[in-house]
Amino acid sequence: MNDQTRTPDSITFEEHDEFQRKPIAEKLLKLLTSDINVSPMVIDGHWGTGKTEFCYKLINLLKETHPDVHVAYVDAFKADHANEPLMTLVAAIANLIDDEETEKSFREKAIPALRYGLKTLGKAGIAWLLKKNADEIPDEFEDILQEAAEDSINAAIEQSIKDHQDIEAVLTTLQEALERIAEEKPLILFVDELDRCKPDFAIAMLESIKHVFDVPNVQFVLVSNLKQLKDSINHCYGVGINAQRYLDKFVSYTLVLPDELTQNRHNYVLASIEYTKLLIEKSGTLAESYLAKEGTFKFIETLIKENQLSLREVETFIRHLEVAQILGGATYFSNTLPPGRVLLNVLGVFIYCFNKDIAELLIRGSADAKQITKVLGIEEFPDRDSIGPYPSPEQVVSTLLFYSLPVGVPGIPEDNSDDDRFWKGVIGDYFQGSLRHSMDGYYVKIITDTIRLLRME
User: Fold this and answer.
1) Packing angle between helix 393-404 and helix 339-354, nearest 10 degrees?
2) Which of 26, 271, 297, 450 is least crowded, fewest Cβ atoms below 10 Å from its Cβ?
3) 277-287 pLDDT, tens per residue?
């Protein structure tokens, strides 16, 4: 599990590289330190895929291998409340400058640009306010306002031209100062958590990077979920705009973090599954449990695959398994229980974590089999001809539930048929009991009791 004492500086590939991402980082650094223009670059990944941890490791590798480069990390989400993306980036750069005089000079050149940003923000607010209250203006004032508006428009145009000239000069001065700093020591800024920011702030950050910091030897790496960024673009500019084309104006190169690991040249495994295995092994609560045993872990693996759990969701799942083990006692996932009982306990924890609606239906006694088995990727009664002599754990659990909650489930074998005897034998082996228990709700109650345990009822 995550160690709360870890700091960004201590998170390195040498510490651990469970997702085999160091080779990716090395290739990225090769690009960032080459003559190719790949800035701004985006490191893309879904929620909970370990983007921030990869970013920390990449930064630390960069510092280690390229001490001649200035490196800054910006948590955009933490800066979101200030609503000043330009100020956030300027401050990050100022903090990198070792020489006191150079840093002071840079700040002095940056201040006019920051003031202009605040000034234009104020104008936008006033314009919004006037528009908001326009319908409250009495009719008799319309003619007077119209005449005044014509004069105001002319004055506004003149002022706008002057403002544009002023900001061009201010930005040029700032960019020249930045260029001199970066000429001595290149700058690479990593902007993380952009996808968690308010849409207006996220887009303003992108536009600041593009229009203000397009300077030689200054590069940006954006660590963000591109789908969320596209949603922010559509939120700001409307669904009619092509968000991908808009992004293409700002982004030079995109890397999608892979969700698979290579076991050898031909075999791949989901990173989330390997991470689950690692977390169980490292857990003082679960390491000696039955969860790491082949049959149980295969069941857990199915739950992860079928529900496409992210790395962060895996952490949530493991944490709740630990809670169940502590609240339920040391034998909750122990091999002293029938293996099928352990599977039902695991399923109960999973449903509690990720399927609150089904959990509520189970508590009320109104869930049906298909709702539950869908979590395992099974919606039909298993066909014996296609499963072979040894059904998988998820097939056994699903079959048990189909027998227990048969409403709307076609294909259940007739009593005492060959298939019926086969499944009763398999279930008996797994649960060390008879199928009769399923008919009186005994096995479904195991899942429900696990949910109640986690609800501390």
Assistant:
1) 80
2) 26
3) 999 999 999 98
CATH architecture of 8-256: 3-Layer(aba) Sandwich (3.40)
pLDDT band at 304 (very low <50, low <70, confident <90, very high): very high
Among 48, 61, 47, smallest CA distance to 17 is for 61
Residue type for position 151? D
Q: Report the alpha-carbon distance of residue 198 to residue 214 in Å, rounded.
A: 24
Distance CA 369, CA 380 (A): 10
Query: pLDDT tens digits for 172-209?
Result: 888 888 888 888 889 999 999 999 999 998 998 898 88
Please give the Cα distance from 51 to 225 (Å, whole number): 9
Mean pLDDT of 21-42: 94
pLDDT of residue 438: 59
Q: How confident is the model at residue 132 (pLDDT cuts 50, 70, 90)?
A: very low
**Higher-pLDDT residue of 384, 433:** 384
pTM above 0.70, yes or no: yes
How confident is the model at residue 155, as a pLDDT? 47
pLDDT of 110 reads: 78
Which residues fall within 8 angstroms of residue 456, CB to CB, at 6 or more apart? 327
Distance CA 177, CA 106 (A): 6
What value does the mean pLDDT take over residues 135-144?
44
Domain positions in the chain are 8-256, 268-454
Angle between helix axes 22-32 and 51-65 (nearest 10 degrees) is: 60
What is the C-alpha end-to-end distance of the chain, expressed in Å?
A: 27
Query: Are 265 and 295 contacting, i.e. CB atoms less than 8 angstroms apart?
Result: no
